[in-house]
Amino acid sequence: MDETHKKILQRNRSNLVKDLDPSKLYDGLLEKGIFTQDMIDEIQSAGTRRNQARQLVRDLETRGSRAFPLFLECLQETGQESLAELLQNGAPAVTLQPATPTQVVRPVIQRLPITSPVDGNNPSIDVEKPRIPPSSPPGGGKLRPGPGRVRRDSLQSYKMDASPCGHCLIINNMEFEPHSMLNNRKGSNIDCEKLERRFKTLNFVVEVRTNLRQKQIKHELLTLSKKDHSQYDCCVVIMLSHGTEVNHNRFPGAVYGVDGQYVPVQHITNYLNGQHCPSLQGKPKLFFIQACGGDERDMGFEVSPDEVEPSSGGMDDQTDAIPMSSSSDSLSMSDEPDARPTLPTPSDILVSYSTFPGYVSWRETQSGSWYVQTLDCILEENAATDDLVTMLMMVNNEVSQNSAKGLYKQMPGSFNFLRKLLYFQTQT
Fold first, then answer.
1. pLDDT digits over 396-407, tens only?
2. In terms of C-beta density within 10 A (0-12 exposed, 13-18 middle, 19 or more buried), how is residue 370 classed?
3. Cβ burial, residue 349 (10 Å; 0-12/13-18/19+)
4. Which of 109, 170, 369, 409 is most buried, most CB within 10 Å of its CB?
5. b/e burial code for range 119-141 (CB count within 10 A of at least 16 → b)
């Protein structure tokens, strides 16, 4: 932080300690990348409100050049305008810039030599589709954990025999408000229908919400977190939308509401973690993120023909990705001993992303995204015998062998904080 701003904070420290309400600022400070979650946890552990305010101001002085204007922005957003005015008094002019642009700026990419358009100005892309053969829909019958599964002695499995197994919330954002500057997501309804059908088959209570603004997304997640999950074994959240890159210290990326305002993936997971949703403590929380907004196109690298198998062709694809944060923050592990029986806050969480950080993922307007198509097929074919992490590796492998126009590739991935193997219920 620049010396002038440091002196302003020091000069007004007593007023800040007396009047500042730090609890209102934590989400904004985290979202704008001023503090990491570990820093906020440390401030909260300082004790009283005054002590937290004192620690917050001290730590703020150690942050970068954007920390002061962003702190003022947080004060204004949380109704603490009088403190913001106090700090601005006598300070050099400060431009309050958002941490991330509200409009996605896309690089100029040379058009591919294809004539039939997709969505007006976008070129149509020939796509090699997933090689998984279609199967007939699963029939009715009793639910079972799946005979024939090879259990590993070194790892336990999560209890997954409740009926129903748990809640599954699908948020499907397809039609974006004009001022958001985000394109409509053709084909997302196909993804939504597939996943709704699939998780009902896996014995989840599925709720679908369509075209939500940022505040509505937060409201739905809060409502889900306040449900009593004590009779259930698992919870699933699926986000189908545009995405962007944000600072983070655990889970990268953010998902847009139809109003062009985003919710960080890290905040999405926080609603259901062991601290905020006690009835899901020790139970698996699964998040599947299919979000567009990435600009980099992966052209892959050359390998021997024996390394890959050809797949059938397709066409009419759009890009669909979630670029992840370039922040250097990472999940930190504390060496401090703790006598209480506890689990780490992000434990029992798995976040599956449709693509590698910063790259596009592909979505066909007529049959949905590569990632969801493949995930649905893998779950149908393998849920009776394989655990979730193994199946996600299968998804990675299948999607990695697809190509758009013989050029562009895609690589899904996961952030896995599960402690046990997870087997879904299946029908016999």
1. 888 877 655 555
2. buried
3. buried
4. 369
5. eeeebbbbbbbbebeeeeebeee
Q: Which of 258, 292, 296, 256 is nearest to 369 (CA)?
A: 292
Which residues in the chain show pLDDT less than 70? 90-155, 292-346, 356-363, 402-409, 428
Question: Among 346, 318, 410, 401, which Cα is nearest to 121's?
Answer: 318
pLDDT at position 46: 77
Rounded CA separation 130/387 (Å): 21
Q: 196: which residues sit within 8 A by CB, 6+ positions away?
A: 170, 206, 208
- Which entry of 168, 234, 235, 292 is annotated as an active-site residue? 292
pLDDT on residue 279: 95
Residues 6+ apart with CB under 8 A from 309: 131, 401
Dist. CA 374–CA 130, nearest whole Å = 6
Q: Distance (Å, rounded) from C-alpha 322 to C-alpha 324?
A: 6
Nearest to 422 by CA among 393, 372, 383, 373: 383
Q: How far apart are CA 320 and CA 80, in angstroms?
A: 39
Q: Is 242 a catalytic residue?
A: yes
**pTM of full prediction above 0.85:** no
Identify whether 292 is a catalytic site residue.
yes
Nearest to 236 by CA among 267, 194, 278, 280: 280
Q: How is the chain split among helix, strand and coil, in percent rounded to 5? A: 30, 20, 50
Which position has the token pair 């074919």?
A: 381
